[in-house]
Design goal:
The complex is a heterodimer of chains A (408) and B (264). With 408 residues, chain A is α+β, with helices and mostly antiparallel strands. Chain A is 49% helix and 14% strand. Chain A folds into three domains: 12-125, Acyl-CoA dehydrogenase/oxidase, N-terminal domain (Butyryl-Coa Dehydrogenase, subunit A, domain 1, Orthogonal Bundle), CATH 1.10.540; 131-235, Butyryl-CoA Dehydrogenase, subunit A, domain 2 (Beta Barrel); 237-383, Up-down Bundle (Butyryl-CoA Dehydrogenase, subunit A, domain 3). In chain A, the strands form three sheets. Chain A has a four-stranded antiparallel sheet with strand order 2-3-7-6, covered by helices on one side. A three-stranded mixed sheet of chain A has the order 1-4-5, with helices on one face. Chain B folds into two domains: 2-222, HUPs (Rossmann fold, 3-Layer(aba) Sandwich); 234-264, no CATH class. Chain B is an alpha/beta fold and 264 residues long. The chains are: A alpha+beta (408), B alpha/beta (264). Chains A and B meet through helix 1 of A and helix 2 and helix 5 of B.
């Protein structure tokens, strides 16, 4: 298997520490050795490569920013580089790690009781347990605050009713972090597999993220112990804090998919010969596509790196992350299309990774806050006008509101 | 048991190489460096042995500052400590001068075993390890494909891969120098935790004087072999393609071998 050479047009590696580079190299090798040889087959068969879970756990990829429970305690640039390399392999694999780390381990670590942390963080970090995150509902995606799933306290138990959709790893999960409306607002709960009244089923017919499991969760008078409430959750903002973690990672992940498409197209263009013994890379129109790709990837790298620095300094805001997620996933989407053009018919078969990335990115473009919603988040920041739900309101300048639309 | 592992940092084989301006080596400016492949297997073997028998691995390398990346990776993989022969007096040496420097560094500690790769992927002399064994006065095995340390740690059984699919087995007394081939194990990945811990592991940088050597015994000054020129082989020159079906092409080839090359 040919090794991925990396994309570093502007010597941006100089911004990385020795540890960050070594971490990227480790995950890069893992993806080249263990992901790329099997991923097209996983995509064809719509199979999540669970055989990679123990290896990813051994490397320390789950909950890698947590510094307790024997986890590595990485900085945010390192975390981003991990997701970049994983998404270079496949967006579904990166989704697995994003969900496990940012949407399950993070809320349990940040909002859980000591007992919840002690029980779940080691199990999830070692890959012995898999988690999922239930926020999005069939009728509420971009506006999770409209959710209809409820939790009612009955004696020593919470009773959950409702359903969640588009849940990565739903049927695989040992524990679900579920958000539900209570008398005290929206709160997070831990629902374990096999709890009576809790069902899950897989979404079939997906043309995207086929190497990942996407599920629906159902709750019908599902009773869970009162202790399964995440005690430090007080509202929708806690769910949005989880999404900020995940979306930050996607800003890096998008670059990984873009890099894979770019390097594949570059190599192909240098080898594919049509006229006069010259490779198609000698054509100006092909060069234009390749140059667009490497330029946008480079700008995206700078954006992602600055997000990482802001996040390490605790200065990052949700609208910063929106810009990163929106831009870098868009870059990935455009790179996939341009690469497809460069590869011609070879761009639509899975002998090459292009069509898989192109299909995957359609999900990534929409989940974790759609491209359009992130545009409105940035728009709200710079104009002071929230444009999410305009019609009935008189549109006038107001201070930005904190609550922000979402979807998982 | 304490194991010394000697590693070399070499250009990544997938990089595009260019001859340096002085014509005596490659231009190192824009190339990526990696740990020499068979040395990676030597390190893995050492880590596995200390996991089974206890003890620790100390990794040695000679070369300029860039070599610290290779050492850092070895520490992230599980080596306890690193010794970097970084002093410019050590640089540019032939296999003998390099072995002399390594021997002095290894002799300044107590080791049960020295493991290293059978040869480097850049210079490829395959000589440093055997010279190191000679200088240390220790038993030595080359092209090793299997290694078991006996109970008590006084000796080891090695498997060498011979021609025609045969293996050779023998036992040697420790301490010894063992040079392994790529493929005898499965090198691990550095875990993220290991990478973070590596930051705090010590890297010694002794000078020739620290090792009881004088500067002209090592490096370029201590070498008897000098690279005078490196060049890419001319491509396409002297090659001839025989057209036609296999029988015709074979006939033409035999004709040429008999009458022009006169080797038949």
């Amino acid at each position: 298997m040919k090794r991925f050479p990396g994309v570093d047009f502007l010597e941006l590696d100089a911004l990385l520490s020795d540890e960050e580079k070594l971490i990227r190299e480790t995950v890069r090798d893992f993806v080249d050795d263990m992901v790329k040889p099997i991923i097209e087959e996983c995509h064809r068969d719509a199979r999540t490569p669970l055989e990679l879970v123990p290896k990813m756990a051994e490397l320390g990829l789950f909950g890698s920013t947590i510094a307790e429970y024997g986890l590595p305690g990485l900085g945010n640039v390192s975390y981003g580089l991990i997701l970049q390399e994983l998404e270079r392999g496949d967006s579904g694999l990166r989704s697995f790690v994003s969900v496990q780390s940012s949407l399950v381990m993070y809320p349990i670590y940040a909002f859980g009781s000591q007992a919840q942390r002690d029980r779940w963080i080691p199990a999830l970090g070692s890959g012995e347990a898999i988690g999922c995150f239930g926020l999005t509902e069939p009728n509420f995606g971009s506006n999770p605050g409209g959710m209809s799933t409820t939790a009612r306290l009955d004696g020593n138990e919470w009773v959950l009713n409702g359903s969640k959709q588009w849940i990565t790893n739903g049927t695989l999960a040992d524990v679900a972090v579920v958000w539900a409306r209570t008398d005290d607002g929206i709160r997070g709960f831990l629902v374990e597999k096999d709890t009576p009244g809790f069902t899950s089923s897989d979404q079939h017919g997906k043309f995207s993220l086929r190497a990942s499991t996407t599920s629906e969760l159902g709750f019908v008078n599902c009773r869970i112990p009162a202790d399964n409430l995440l005690p430090k959750t007080t509202g929708l903002k806690n769910a949005l804090m989880c999404l900020n973690q995940a979306r930050y990672g996607i800003a890096w992940g998008g670059l990984g998919a873009a890099m894979e498409c770019y390097t594949t197209a570059l190599e192909y263009a240098k080898e594919r010969i049509q006229w006069n013994g010259q490779p198609i890379a000698s054509h100006q129109l092909v060069q234009d596509k390749l140059v667009w790709m490497v330029t946008e990837i480079t700008k995206g790298q700078l954006l992602a790196h600055q997000l990482g620095k802001l996040k390490d300094a605790n200065r990052i805001k949700h609208f910063h992350i929106s810009m990163g997620k929106k831009n870098n996933v868009w870059v990935a989407r455009e790179c996939a299309r341009l690469a497809r053009e460069v590869l011609g018919a070879n761009g639509i078969v899975d002998d090459y990774p292009i069509i898989r990335h192109m299909l995957n990115i359609e999900s990534v473009f929409t989940y974790e806050g759609t491209h359009d919603i992130h545009t409105l988040v940035v728009g709200e920041k710079i104009t002071g006008i929230p444009a999410f739900n305009a019609p009935e309101q008189t549109v006038k300048a107001k201070p930005p509101t904190k609550a922000t639309a979402a979807s998982t | 048991m304490r194991i010394a592992v000697c590693i070399k940092q070499v250009p990544d084989a997938e990089g595009r190489l260019q001859v340096a301006a002085d014509g005596k080596w490659i231009d190192e400016d824009e190339i990526k460096f990696v740990i020499n492949e068979s040395d990676q297997y030597a390190l893995e073997e050492a880590l596995t042995l200390t996991e089974a028998h206890g003890g620790e691995v100390v990794v040695f390398s000679l070369g300029p500052d860039r070599v610290q990346d290779a050492l850092r990776k070895a520490l992230a993989l599980g080596a306890k400590r690193a010794v970097h022969l970084a002093d410019s007096a050590f640089h540019g040496g032939d296999a003998h001068a390099t072995a002399r420097a390594l021997a002095a560094a290894i002799r300044s500690e107590e080791f049960d075993l020295v493991l290293t790769g059978a040869q480097s992927d850049d210079a490829g002399y395959g000589a440093t390890g055997s010279m190191l064994a000679g200088l240390l006065g220790w038993p030595h095995a080359w092209l090793v494909m299997g290694l078991e340390v006996d109970e008590g740690g006084g000796s080891a059984k090695v498997t060498r891969e011979m021609e025609s699919g045969m293996n050779e087995f023998f036992r040697l007394q420790l301490p010894a120098v063992i040079e392994v081939q790529a493929g005898l194990n499965h090198p691990r990945y550095a875990s993220l935790k290991g990478i973070m811990q590596a930051k705090r592991k010590p890297v010694d940088r002794p000078t020739p004087a620290d090792l009881g050597l004088v500067a002209d015994e090592v490096g370029m000054a201590g070498s008897r072999l000098e690279i005078v020129d490196v060049a890419f082989p001319d491509s396409g020159v002297g090659a001839q393609i025989f057209e036609g079906d296999p029988a015709t092409a074979a006939k033409a080839l035999i004709e040429k071998l008999r009458n022009e090359a006169r080797v038949l």
